């Protein structure tokens, strides 16, 4: 089992910045992928950014150049720095942890943190 606890989030004006973080605890795999997803009201949950243990990253086109995902493997944390925020970035942001053990993929989710971009 892996537990994920998110922090940060809140409300900001368009063009502003926010940083959200997630701490993982429990049975942490040596190789894993941590990611941020988001879900806006009435929309499906979508991948925002992901980062593997080795540092390889992947971003949604809508956030490239504005958001930066990073991780601290020693502390089992992942953060998302969000700059130049837009109203369409408003959503609940979820931390995700995924790992493969013996050919089976395990996935865990955080409880979500609200990010609101509004003037």
Helical residue percent? under 10%
- Low-confidence regions: none
Structural class: mainly beta
- The arrangement of helices and strands along the chain is EEEEEEEEEEE
Task: Characterize the main sheet.
Answer: 7 strands, mixed
Overall form: elongated
Number of helices: 0
Overall pLDDT: 96
Question: What descriptors fit this protein?
Answer:
mainly beta; 0% helix; single chain; 119 residues
Kindly describe this structure.
- By secondary structure, the protein is mostly beta strands.
- It is 0% helix and 59% strand.
- It has strands spanning 2-8, 10-12, 18-26, 33-39, 46-52, 57-59, 67-72, 77-82, 91-101, 104-109, 113-117.
- A hairpin with a 2-residue loop joins strand 9 and strand 10 (104-109).
Short précis:
The chain has 119 residues and is mainly beta. 0% of the residues lie in helices and 59% in strands.
What's the arrangement of secondary structure elements?
Blueprint: E1 2-8, E2 10-12, E3 18-26, E4 33-39, E5 46-52, E6 57-59, E7 67-72, E8 77-82, E9 91-101, E10 104-109, E11 113-117
Parallel strand pairs: 2-11
Antiparallel strand pairs: 1-3, 3-8, 4-5, 4-9, 5-6, 7-8, 9-10, 9-11
């Amino acid at each position: 089992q892996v537990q994920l606890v998110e922090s940060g989030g809140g409300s900001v004006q368009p063009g502003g910045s926010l940083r959200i973080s997630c701490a993982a605890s429990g049975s942490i795999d040596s190789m894993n992928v941590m990611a941020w997803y988001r879900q806006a009201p009435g929309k499906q949950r979508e991948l925002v950014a992901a980062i593997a243990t080795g540092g390889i990253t992947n971003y949604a086109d809508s956030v490239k150049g504005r958001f930066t995902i990073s991780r601290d493997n020693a502390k089992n944390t992942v953060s998302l720095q969000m700059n130049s925020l837009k109203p369409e970035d408003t959503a609940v942001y979820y931390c995700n942890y995924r790992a493969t053990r013996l050919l089976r993929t395990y996935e865990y989710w955080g409880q979500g943190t609200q990010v609101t971009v509004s003037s």
